[in-house]
Amino acid sequence: MTGPARILLADDHALVRRGVRLILDSEPDLTVVAEAGDGAEAIALARAEQPDLAILDIAMPRLTGLQAARELSRTMPGLRILILTMYDNEQFFFEALRAGANGYVLKSVADRDLVEACRAAMRDEPFLYPGAVTALIRDYLDRAARGQDQPERAITAREEEVLKLIAEGHSAREIAQLLFISIKTVDRHRANLLQKLGLRDRLELTRYAIRAGLIEP
């Protein structure tokens, strides 16, 4: 892709849109090309502007962000979608995933997480805040207890890259430089790996990497 990612921003509060736009437009690889005040307007603008990414608030008039996400996922399958919300709520989180969202970002930490979430979405990687990861694990364990099928991959491709480098003995700073990500992002991936895999420390991560064939014993 050439040029910055083109973003549609939908929230019914103009002040929120202004704040989010300031965060995004200050990044050279991101630009807001359209703003919507409700879900129906978001759908219309997405069709007119053909953005790369739509950021949708959940609680909006006419159509909610989740309803808009379902429609956009169905009619514009190439569009990436992020849900931006004040609701730290498992039900909304799972609904967002079912609606086709690439990520779920809390407004309370948007200044910290939103840019990273946009970049992850543009790489077709999921972005989940830590509480959402916990919810996913709980759902995974519930499904296992009921004997239901599990997803084939327990970790993402990026997490696998981080895991391999950790197991090879690289520091967080070295991993950040190798993968062109921040040290904070490396730390988040490491925490997600420990949580997802039920492990406690670097040694156990290394043993897992050996069993998974990522490094030689």
Task: Walk me through the structure.
The modification 4-aspartylphosphate is found at residue 57. By secondary structure, the protein is of the alpha/beta class. It has two domains: 5-132, 3-Layer(aba) Sandwich (Rossmann fold), CATH 3.40.50.2300; 153-211, Orthogonal Bundle (Arc Repressor Mutant, subunit A). The chain has helices spanning 14-25, 39-49, 65-75, 90-98, 110-122, 130-145, 157-167, 172-179, 183-197, 202-211; strands at 5-10, 30-36, 53-57, 80-85, 103-106, 127-128. Strands 2-1-3-4-5-6 form a six-stranded parallel β-sheet, with helices on both faces. α7 crosses α9, α7 packs across α10 and α8 (172-179) packs across α9 (183-197). It is globular, with a radius of gyration of 18 Å. The termini are far apart. The model has no long low-confidence stretch (mean pLDDT 86).
Features:
single chain, globular, Arc Repressor Mutant, subunit A, Rossmann fold, alpha/beta, 217 residues
Short structural description:
This protein is α/β, with parallel strands linked by helices and 217 residues long.
CATH superfamily name of the largest domain?
Response regulator
> What is the averaged pLDDT score?
86
Given as residue ranges, the uncertain stretches (5+ residues, pLDDT < 50) are none
Helix and strand succession?
A: EHEHEHEHEHEHHHHH
How many strands, what sense, and barrel or not for the largest sheet?
Answer: 6 strands, parallel
Keywords: DNA-binding, Phosphoprotein, Transcription, Transcription regulation
Organism: Catellatospora methionotrophica
GO molecular function: DNA binding
InterPro entries: CheY-like_superfamily, NreC/VraR/RcsB-like_REC, Sig_transdc_resp-reg_C-effctor, Sig_transdc_resp-reg_receiver, Tscrpt_reg_LuxR_C, WalR-like
